[in-house]
């Protein structure tokens, strides 16, 4: 929930998600919603699917039943690792002929409905993220820079309440990492093993350029020198060793207005090439290569891997700031096929954005060969009144995005705590803008 210094904190029993205890209803008046944990995507993707299911159950006042026996991370199911969604309704409702998709127009007539994965839902439920409840909207908008992120974070946090064995593992693992969040620390997520197929490669130095920017801004704000500390979550153990080797020495590049890149060296080793003034000084790098090893492709769907990824998400969410790329699992929905849709933005000119394989052609094939794809601030569009510009972002790094959502539950407003492209819920209702007057494009 919001921190104690928020302008509208309410007492227990108030009209907030935590007080309503999502997932619980009286068994005597049971209307249910069923969901399976899908095995065709990773843990972060699965959590986001469950989050959407719980939000829909909450909004429609149904009880969510989770079928997870045979789960690819733990064959005993979700509730062998995390606390049950409901403490009173734990038996799975048997399949019967009354079960249909909750997206169906007549779903309210049936006591049991099921939720397909969000990719397949059309049209969207009115409460699918980025939607927030109307009764909370005014206060949320006033209190938080990204109300939808806060809203999703409450449900994700509820779903990820660990059982005692996992909780003890997290406590011991954080102690081993020497992780403490009393002083600023930046969380960095670098995924490598299977992402070369989906997004551009970024060096360790490219990530740390933004880590250093955060510390420089914090030092100006606080008026004091800060120790540089960063936690690295990765699926490649060599990344942690590389960061410790390269970031433990103070290095510098000089600002150059021409296109020439300056070569930066630490000792005899060439570290990187950077086209601007840049410092990196004596970083303490936190990270566990053994955890990274469990996230590698051969062992990704294992219980050790599950514990490792939960640890990464948990620690990232406790950091002061996040730096990562939202680059994986690119996909698009057909929800925005409108006659007046003239443009789609694919990255918002955000930091660390490269060429995403096949995205432009897929947009043209799916929507129209004439569609304008706007991917740089130097591009300007000519719009007529009523033209719609839609931001699509099916592609997400679920781990970093989930950590960012959970971060909101520890702060009054942590919407400023990431340098990445803006947040969208995968396959959710992305932001859309409509031109209210004609506009002539200018370069």
TrEMBL record:
Region listing for Important for donor substrate binding, in residue ranges = 191-192
Q: By its UniProt entry, which InterPro entries does this protein fall under?
A: Fut8_N_cat, GT23_dom
The name this protein carries in UniProt is: Uncharacterized protein
Instruction: Write one Pfam family the protein is assigned to.
Output: FUT8_N_cat
The record's comment on protein family reads:
Belongs to the glycosyltransferase 23 family.
Biological process GO terms, please?
protein N-linked glycosylation
Q: Which PROSITE patterns match?
A: GT23
